[in-house]
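Researcher: Here's my situation. A collaborator sent me these components and asked whether they could plausibly form a single complex. I don't have experimental data yet, so a predicted model of the whole assembly would be a useful starting point for our discussion.
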Amino acid sequence: MSAFHIPQGLIEQLRTARQVAVLTGAGISAESGVPTFRDAQTGLWAQYDPQELATRRAFQQNPQLVWAWYAWRRGLVAQAVPNPGHHALVTLERFTPHFTLITQNVDGLHAQAGSQNVIELHGNIKRIKCFDHDHPVDHWEEETDVQPYCPVCGSALRPDVVWFGESLPAVALHTAVNAARTCDIFLSIGTSALVQPAASLPIEAHQRRITVVEINPHPTPLTPYATYVLPGPAGEILPALVAQVTQ
Ligand code: NAD
């Protein structure tokens, strides 16, 4: 018997769905030890607001500071392993005829868990490119106190992630919007539903009368629009939900 009440109607809908779309945010990786942007930062970084470091302007003003912060986050991500929430989504993908996993996360943990059809809306922290021309770079000095430069053009290196105020990769966004509009059921997991345009995806689904499910310990602006709200940690709720769907 699961500690969480999972509505029977939701289990039946997921069992029979032909197309499932899922949007994940930083919350699904919290149980893997990767802090969300809304968690208070600890140690050296406690004095900084992540939302003020993850911008072009912050990088232009102090590239060394932003590089050091990302080097620290890359270190956290390198040690992190997928948790039962990531693994449950792999099981659900195998069970579902057409499954699209849209993530705002840059940690690569869905692919590491074995998810196949993953759209990384905000890039990947493990990739590096240059600031001026987006030249991809394979090798760099992983020192937090030395800002590296592009071997091609000499501009500063930065993570290949989408910062606040930057555009999302067009093909990835188009594919995500299409999945949100055509799915039978949309799951929003571990996201504050505040960062646009990702936050509009479950709303797109809701406007088409598609069932929307939210999994998050805390209410978000999406909560009033969700057909089913499962409050709690994704690493516990998802395994319980998927076990009942696939049994
Ligand atoms: P967010 O930090 O704004 O919100 C995290 C949400 O997760 C909150 O609503 C919180 O209540 C919820 N949450 C916390 N623990 C949870 C758990 N165990 N299970 C389920 N939900 C839980 O994150 P966001 O909505 O993804 O948006 C912030 C931006 O930050 C995104 O653009 C993303 O790219 C970036 N980001 C990525 C990572 C990562 O890759 N792991 C980490 C931090 C931030």
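Model: Some features of this prediction you could bring to your collaborator: The CA atoms of residues 14 and 245 lie 7 Å apart. The mean pLDDT is 94.
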